[in-house]
Design goal:
By secondary structure, this protein is an alpha+beta fold. It has 14 helices and 25 strands. It folds into 2 domains: about 300 residues, Rossmann fold, CATH 3.40.50.880; about 190 residues, DD-peptidase/beta-lactamase superfamily (Beta-lactamase), CATH 3.40.710.10. The longest helix is centred in the N-terminal third of the chain and has 13 residues.
Amino acid sequence: MTNYTTSPRGLRTLPMVLLAAAMTTSACARTSTAGSTATPGTGDAAKSTPSVGPTWGSVLVVGGGAMGPEVFAKFIELAGGPDALIVDVPTAGGDSVDLNTVGRALRAAGARNVVVYHTVSRTVADADTFVAKIANARGVWFEGGRQFRLVNSYAGTKSERAFQAALDRGGVVGGSSAGASILGSYLVRGAPSSDNRLMNHPQYLKGFSYLRNVAIDQHVVARERLADLHDSLTSRRPDLLGISEDEGTAWFVRGDVAEIIGRNKAFVYNGRDANDAGKPFLTLHPGDKYNMARRRVISRAVDATPLTQKFVDGLFQSYRDAARGGATVLVAQDGTVLINSAYGIAVQRHFQPETGVPNMPLHGLGAALEGAMTPDSSGRMGAASVRRVLTIGGMQRVAYDSVTKSWQGSVDDLYRFEQGRTALRPGARDTATAVRGFTTETVNGLRRQSAYGSSDGHTSAWVRYPERRTTILVLTKDNAADAKGISERIAEKLFRK
């Protein structure tokens, strides 16, 4: 029986001698092809063979939780469209899987040819008759659960080779939660146990290697896991690139280039750019692009706009003084997050994003949340109505006080709500329908929907410009803060031609 040790954060890891030996063996079995080149094509220069991502096709790594339409829409697009054969693999869910519901989310997103692919028998997984039904698959989606079940059923079988073949045909392989971690070469939290604190296990160190020399974690913000990759792995293995993502957020990888899509943040460990101040990782946002081979940021979404981080920092300069209670801001446009910053807020427990914790009083912004409430069976806006609101968009920590009838939350959670409440499929046009809880007016020829912490526009602001698909969120604890004015200055800068 293996003896485990417990890290200061409660994670259980293997004894260092055993772990080092297992890591070395696993790493040697997955030697990278970095530096090699493919046969020159019709272009002027030879195409470099990716050293991390797939040579053909794409990989989509999702952090679990509620996913917006942009994630499944991207997956279906990469598979070849609604009529492409897509394989949904629920095996990580084990005995809890209801096979009658598998594939429902993909079908709801527009996929018309979804095959459920599940077995717990390696003999079946290695049978030609079983594999034949996915011979023409262009997409493979791994559902959540426990990673070890995917290894037990498919590793080294004809099924695993069939999954790889879908990628080699130029298709896409993706997954969420456990289905995300299996996509890397180093398998994190793969132990055959229900204990998620077990970060490494000697018999379950190897994933399906669609991303080479990469370890993947998930649910990292919702479950306060941001420190875990560093504490248990990447600090000891500088050769490994560690990546993780918040719930509803995805890495879209083609070759060695990744783009972040979805609802919040992704994180890089052992990158070559500077880490976030005081943290063992670098934070990325939807719309940011990253070179996984060079381990450097290619571009930030804000770079393509007139808005700059320096400009926004200037607006919040006085809030760097913690005595003012702190401030946070999020600016998003067309599904990308341009600005997501905190001022005067200390580094949080387990490196939680300061834009996500602690909660701030929402005051008048709570009307936007209440606008989504529906009566319960008795016709009242009771506790059940509040609970339904709290699930919209995958919000994680928004709180409602039934005594004071007040809300507390963060810009990160309000953006999740925004995505869950109003986000459209990529490419769809916004409608003119007013959103309950917001005041609608026309400003400089643009329709603006707004809610403020106070009637005079102070404390906080939640502003939407639907035609520009733009959201500006400002939260402070300062009753004198001109949140309306700040949001207007951001909009003026962003919309400048």
